[in-house]
Amino acid sequence: MIVMTEKVVTTEEFRLRLIDLEYKNISKEEMIKRIKQIYLEEYGKKLSAEIEIYHSSEATTLTQDTGFDGTAIHFKTHNGDNNELYVISQGSKDIVDWEYNIKAMFAGKDYSQAQDTHKFTEETINKFGINSKKEMTSIIGLSHSLAHNNNTTAHLIYGTFDKVYSVNGAQTNYYQLYFADRKFANDVRSYFSMSYNNPDAIYDIDPNKLRQFAEAYYKDKAKNIHQVISEDDPLYAVSVARGFFTLGNVEIMDTNPDYPGLRSLIKDIPDEVIKDFQELAIQYTTASNQGGIKTVMHDILGVNMDVVNKMDNWFNSVKAYATYQPEIDTMIRQLDKKLPGVLKRVKMITSNAELIFGRLVKAGYISNAQKQLIVKEFTNIETELDAIQETLSRLVGVRDTGNFFVQIGGDIAAVVKLMGHITAIQDSLEVLKREDLLSILEEIKASHSITEVLSSLSSGKKSYLGTDMVFSTKHGKKEIKVNISAALRMYQDGKAVLEEKSSEIDHFQTAIHREISQCYENNKSQVMRKIDDIEANPDLYSYLLRKHIYFSRLNKKVKRIRVYEVFFPLETANLNEEIHVLRKSVEKGYTYVENYRKAIEDLFAEEKEIANLFDLVGGE
Fold first, then answer.
1. pLDDT tens digits for range 459-495
2. What per-residue confidence (pLDDT) applies to 22?
3. CA dist 403 → 326, 390, 399, 406, 408 (Å)
4. Cβ neighbours of residue 110 under 8 Å, at least 6 residues apart?
5. How many Å apart are CA 445 and CA 70, to the nearest integer?
């Protein structure tokens, strides 16, 4: 693969706005239109390349239900020397993606979306007829959030891209690469003297040593990875945890100066806490891949959900107990056996609550009162889990007595008691969902967004509002900001609407002439032709006379017919005044749009590029 320098998309701002377009769920036609306008705004000239769009929903080679979603944009230049293909993988957007996040990035045992990224790129290359050697076309991955993990993993394993650009990405995971990249896995086993019989032994290797090995192993391909990351991005914060490592040329930005970076908070969380969470994620991954959530509940807690769902009240509980007594006996014993391990991991997390939430207070994310409330509710949850374990322990003891009637009463009573503990846990979760406690999540979510990073790239008179470009100028001491993107859209769309309206008026005027004036003349001509025929051939119309005067023995003939015709002129059919009013409204609209343009140009009299933008977008 020959790495080429991009000549169509050359700025970070254009890349970010291009990535954001992938989330808009718009048609191909609308996407092409928006790409052209973004290019015009960023470079001050029209895009000379043709644009082709291909979406993953059209692809035929992808694995079902992995959650991968992406769009390919092909910039095809006229001479073919600077063709560029951009594959934009979409970041986390629904439960399928976040489930994949846990499996892939924390447990490291799923890489199906990375596989689909490569498959989609290869299918796109064939779809657009790009040379298989890719000598004339740069293949570039654009990504945000989870998509960085997909694009980078595909790049490292399959050599999918010439370059990868991303913003606020979920970092690469060396555990994931271990399971996905056979050559890397063999080299890891050889270097760390690992047994081939136990693939999970990878989690016992010192994570720092494994990270250093992975960084050295992929250093050559890492040169073509470019990242822009916000210090406040939650995924950047999580990337200090075991398994993650950051590759490529990285530009760190402080997009939210009011808060310190989240990464420093995560650094204080002990590795054993992360490891406990990771082990839970691995259990979840294995079980989920085998049979979904029912298998997760069975493998992690020993719970038979088919039986549990039948025990929704006292009557059904007694009925289910009588029918599924062996299954219930096995489930309770398995729950008693497995709950301690799960509870141990939960306690590892809650025992660090003061550290975690204390750091959030110090950083200004939450108040001390909120911290106390959060710690209290987490402690309540842990207490209820302890109570569930105690209830189960007593229940097993009752069962060991061998008294059937005592066992029945104990089982049903235990179900009622367990339901009480579960309800208490739900109540604590409701408290934690209170709006004031979730406000900080909005700050964190904003720092993960593309728009906050784009805003931080503002310089000089140019800035961004969302993904719209804003220009600022000063009149005296007053600063004036104008949303240039919105202004250009209004100017372009306004003129398009007025042109459409003018065209419709023309059609209306033509219809008036056709349906009224022309129809009148056509009917008049038909009447005149009939009159001429009657006067020229009077004998042919004798039947008209016989129809009114009948003599049985006389054969009467019509020798001459003279028709005296009178055609009254059309009245109230002249709509010229109405047409004139409509055309004046179009002229008024054009005047308004042009005055709007002139007002903006006057604000930026010294910036000639503003007038040029209006000329270009208006087709002048």
1. 777 888 878 888 888 777 788 888 888 888 888 888 8
2. 86
3. 16, 21, 7, 5, 9
4. 100, 103, 104, 176, 285, 289
5. 22
Joined together, the tokens standing for residue 46 give 């029209």
Given a contact cutoff of 8 angstroms between Cβ atoms, the answer to whether 256 and 446 are in contact is yes
* DSSP secondary structure letter of residue 513: I
Position 388: which residue type? I
73: alpha, beta or left, given left = phi > 0 and alpha = psi -120 to 50? beta
From CA 442, how far away is CA 448, in angstroms rounded? 10
Q: What's the burial of 124, exposed, middle or buried (CB within 10 Å: 0-12/13-18/19+)?
A: buried
225 closest CA partner among 270, 163, 272: 163
Number of other residues whose CB lies within 10 A of the CB of residue 42: 18
State residue 97's pLDDT score. 45
Q: Report the C-alpha gap between 409 and 416 in whole angstroms.
A: 11
- Asked if 178 contacts 123 with a C-beta cutoff of 8 angstroms, the reply is no
Evaluate whether 407 touches 216 at the Cβ level (below 8 Å): no
Nearest Cα to 266, choosing from 291, 289, 238?
Answer: 238
Amino acid sitting at position 10: T
pTM: 0.65
For residues 146 and 156, give the distance between their C-alpha atoms in angstroms, rounded to a whole number: 16
Q: Which residue has the tokens 């954001």?
A: 20
> How many CB atoms lie under 10 A from the CB of residue 135?
10
90 CB contacts (<8 Å, ≥6 apart)? 22, 23, 69, 70, 71, 144, 147
Q: How far apart are alpha carbons 262 and 237 in whole angstroms?
A: 5
Alpha carbon distance 387, 584 (integer Å): 80
Rg (CA), the chain: 38
For the record, the structure tokens of 4 come out as: 């080429």
DSSP 167-221: EEEPPEEHHHHHHH-HHHHHHHHHHHT--TT-GGGGGGS-HHHHHHHHHHHTHHH
Closest residue by Cα to residue 35 from 92, 91, 61, 74: 74
Give the integer Cα–Cα distance in Å for 66 and 56.
12
Distance CA 146, CA 106 (A): 12
Per-residue model confidence (pLDDT) at position 67? 73
- Residue 160's alpha-carbon distances to 1, 2, 386, in angstroms, are 9, 12, 50
Q: Starting at the edge strand that comes first in sequence, how are the strands of the sheet with 462-465 ordered?
A: 462-465, 468-475, 478-483
Summary count for the chain: helices (H), strands (E): 25, 12
DSSP 516: I
188: Cβ contacts below 8 Å, ≥ 6 apart: 178, 194, 202, 205, 210, 213
- How far is residue 568's CA from residue 571's CA, in Å, rounded to a whole number? 9
Residues paired with 469 in a beta bridge: 464
Instruction: Name the β-bridge partners of 483.
Output: 470
Report the residue count for the chain: 620
**From CA 405, how far away is CA 73, in angstroms rounded?**
71
Q: Which candidate, 230, 406, 407, 246, places its Cα nearest to that of 333?
A: 407
What's residue 174's pLDDT?
92
Residue 95 pLDDT: 43
Spans in the chain with pLDDT lower than 50: 1, 94-98, 435, 620
Beta carbons of 235 and 173 less than 8 angstroms apart: no
